[in-house]
Design goal:
It is a single chain. With 430 residues, the chain is an alpha/beta fold. The chain has two domains: 210 residues, Periplasmic binding protein-like II (D-Maltodextrin-Binding Protein, domain 2, 3-Layer(aba) Sandwich), CATH 3.40.190; 206 residues, D-Maltodextrin-Binding Protein, domain 2 (3-Layer(aba) Sandwich). Strands 1, 2, 3, 6, 7, 8, 9, 10 and 11 form a nine-stranded mixed β-sheet that branches. α5 packs parallel to α14. It is globular.
Length: 430
């Protein structure tokens, strides 16, 4: 059976995008008293947020008597560890995951706890469509950790120093990258660093700007990695790598890139808008040290399109303390949890953070939501949009591309062979 229902449900969510409706609404307090007290496990794969998770866990302990104890692991280790732990009583009460195909495999294995009753209690705190986006096969398995769009952060120091305006066409964008290179400034912060997963960012960002419909068809097994659009993307990426438009390959996205943006040695960093929280944690100020924009399309077929990422928090069905987990989730979705999520991460997934607070605390994010009105075509991020087996293979290939761009066609052929092997398992004739 074809499993495109995952995307149908996510598309319901896309119809209710997070513009002004995200921030206007009613307040509904979560549970003030837990049925029990104790500790719960929280697993995640973001070392840059470990301290914040610790503060979050301490706060829930004070508020409702349920302390969250976080553990952070490197992403590759994390994925394997979680899948193993979920089958035992070591299953975490709360863990950060990914939706789309990555959640579907856990649902099919019967490893996720049903959080429908949590949603019945706190659902009014979220915009319409969010619950549907986190529902698979009629059951809601997650609450949103973050829902955000992929934009390009840029250094105010760079643009102020040269009194430049943001590019309005792709040709202007390429000319600016060449100018920055001539001044000893790294153009784009997309590197190997410590994070394997980030290699898919540039091919995704280039591909959908070449042809957004092709991107969607490729994600759904209706197009091929050796088609002209994909080849065009890899050739363009190779040209940018050959010309030295990227930051040093050992630069880390959570430590080095923020410093480089602030000091003016890096022009751009393409990430989900959650990256604004990382920049602020590293001491950068919105609209002073950095801002964000949406680069122009490469062809008319890439216009009015943007990538959306939804990052869920799930609970293991075999966890030792399922009741504590549900009480914690109710606290998380309450005004107390929402305020802490905003203060610590600059995430506003509920309707409990008003627009004036957004504008005051993070004018860059507020401006982003204004920009999004011109981008009605929202598409799911590569990491979640296509089968896990293809993503993992492609990420390794894209990492090779970063250091050996002359191999671009061999790498595409390899991804195509993997796609041809994988798609029939999902009922897709490829």
């Amino acid at each position: 059976m074809k499993k495109f229902f995952v995307f149908s449900l996510v598309l319901v969510f896309l119809l209710f995008t997070f513009g002004s409706a995200l921030f206007a609404g009613t307040e509904k307090e979560g549970s003030k008293e837990a049925a029990k007290t104790g500790e719960i496990k929280i697993l995640h794969d973001n070392p840059e947020w470990e301290t914040l998770w610790q503060e979050f866990g301490e706060a829930s302990g004070k508020d409702i008597g349920i302390k969250g104890v976080p553990t952070v692991l490197e992403t590759q280790v994390y994925k394997a560890r979680v899948k193993v732990d979920l089958t035992t009583d070591r299953a975490p009460e709360v863990f950060k995951w990914w939706f789309g195909y990555r959640a579907l495999e856990l649902v099919d294995a019967g490893l996720l706890a049903d959080l429908s009753d949590v949603w019945d209690a706190v659902g009014d705190n979220y915009p319409a469509g969010v619950r549907e986006a986190l529902t698979l096969k009629g059951i809601t398995y997650a609450l949103p950790f973050n829902s955000g769009y992929w934009v390009w952060f840029y250094s105010k120091a760079v643009y102020d120093k040269y009194n430049m305006e943001l590019p309005k066409t792709w040709d202007e964008f390429m000319k600016q990258l060449a100018f920055f290179k001539s001044k000893g400034i790294s153009g784009i912060g997309n590197t190997i660093g410590k994070s394997r997963w980030t290699s898919f960012i540039i091919p995704m960002e280039l591909l959908y700007r070449i042809d957004a419909d092709f991107y969607v068809r490729l994600m759904n097994g209706k197009a091929h990695y050796t088609d002209p659009e994909a080849v065009q993307m890899m050739k363009l990426w190779k040209d940018m790598l050959d010309k030295g438009y990227f930051a040093p390959m050992d630069a880390t996205f959570a430590e080095d890139l923020p410093r480089m943006i602030k000091e003016g040695s890096l022009a751009f960093a393409p990430f989900g808008d959650w990256y604004g929280g990382i920049l602020q944690q590293q001491g950068l100020k919105p609209n002073v040290d950095y801002a964000s924009f949406i680069p122009p399309a490469i062809t008319p077929k890439g216009e009015k399109s943007i990538i959306l990422e939804i990052s869920p928090l799930c609970s293991g069905k075999n966890a030792k303390h399922p009741d504590l987990a549900k009480e914690w989730f109710k606290w998380y979705a309450s005004e107390a949890g929402a305020k802490l999520l905003w203060e610590k991460w600059r995430f506003a997934s509920t309707k409990l953070i008003p627009p004036d607070v957004i504008a005051k605390d993070d004018p860059v994010l507020a401006h982003e939501f204004e920009l999004l009105e011109k981008y009605p075509n929202k598409m799911i991020r590569f990491w979640e949009a296509t089968p896990v087996e293809i993503v993992e293979f492609a990420v390794d290939a894209f990492n090779t591309m970063l250091v050996n761009p002359e191999q671009y066609m061999d790498l595409l052929n390899g991804i195509e062979a993997k796609a041809k092997e994988v798609w029939p398992k999902y009922g897709v004739e490829y």
